[in-house]
């Protein structure tokens, strides 16, 4: 009596499955929000993409190219942004001061004419 050893049906190896996933691409997206009495306490945004870079670009996904947190220059960009925001605050304060001084001078001129 002969016993035939049966091998599993044409199964895909892990490498084949991984290659198929990378070629097709998989996107998982979701948001979790925790609120208490209508006040949002915590929001978690999950965006997961499993694909090759070429496939992601083909799908129009390239957020990693423009995200400053993923850039090698993230610290430099953050410092420049902070400096620019400080400069805007100083300019707005100076403009507000000049506007007030101009309005006070206009009031004095009107009073002296009357």
From TrEMBL:
Belongs to the gas vesicle GvpA family. The keyword Coiled coil applies. It comes from the Bacteria. Residues 74-101 form a coiled coil. It is found in: Gas vesicle. InterPro entries: Gas-vesicle_GvpA-like, GvpA. This is Gas vesicle protein. GO terms for molecular function: structural molecule activity. Its main location: other. Keywords: Coiled coil, Gas vesicle. Transmembrane segments: none annotated. It comes from Yoonia algicola. GO terms for cellular component: gas vesicle; vesicle membrane.
């Amino acid at each position: 009596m002969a016993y035939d050893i049966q091998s599993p049906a044409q199964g895909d190896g892990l490498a084949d499955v991984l290659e198929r996933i990378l070629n097709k691409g998989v996107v998982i997206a979701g948001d979790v929000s925790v609120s208490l009495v209508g006040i949002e306490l915590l929001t978690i945004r999950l965006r997961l993409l499993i694909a090759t870079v070429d496939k992601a670009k083909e799908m129009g996904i390239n957020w990693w190219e423009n995200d400053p947190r993923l850039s090698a220059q993230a610290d430099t960009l953050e410092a420049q942004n902070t400096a620019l925001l400080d400069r805007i605050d100083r300019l707005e304060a100076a403009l507000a001061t000049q506007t007030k001084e101009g309005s006070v001078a206009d009031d004095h001129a009107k009073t002296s004419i009357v």
